[in-house]
Amino acid sequence: MISWREDLNIGVPAVDTQHQELVRILNDFLAACTQQKGKDKIVETLEFLVSYTITHFHDEEQIMIRTKFPDYEAHKLEHERFVQDISTIKRQVEDQGVSVLTTIKINRTLVDWLINHIQKNDQLLGSYIKSLDV
Ligand SMILES: [Fe+2]
Predict the structure, then answer these.
(1) For 29, which of 45, 77, 85, 113 could close a Cys bridge (C-beta 3.0–4.6 Å)?
(2) For residue 38, how far is its CA from the centre of ligand 1 (angstroms)?
(3) Does the predicted model carry a pTM greater than 0.90?
(4) Structural domains of the chain, count
């Protein structure tokens, strides 16, 4: 589970709101896994997580394009890798369900990636956008 922390805010309200929602949806999925809700429910929460993630990345990329963010390509690549990873996880869950061990692994993979990405890459975007303000 992730608790929202102030230092995850990047100072761009549209992005921060979506990040908070993303964390909420990720927590729903993790809760479904740890409570062993059954494959259908777990897949349902995971599908919602995947679709929200794609929407969010798209919106973030539009902001980068609009503001001519210099690291756009690299940042977009990070997004694409995550969508690939989460899609692989989704296929695995659909095929094999979720054991305690896979719950721990999925939990670590998704949470680590998201926190790391927000703290490094998205914070850079936030600083860049703030630097544009005159
Ligand atoms: Fe991002």
Answers:
(1) 45
(2) 31
(3) yes
(4) 1
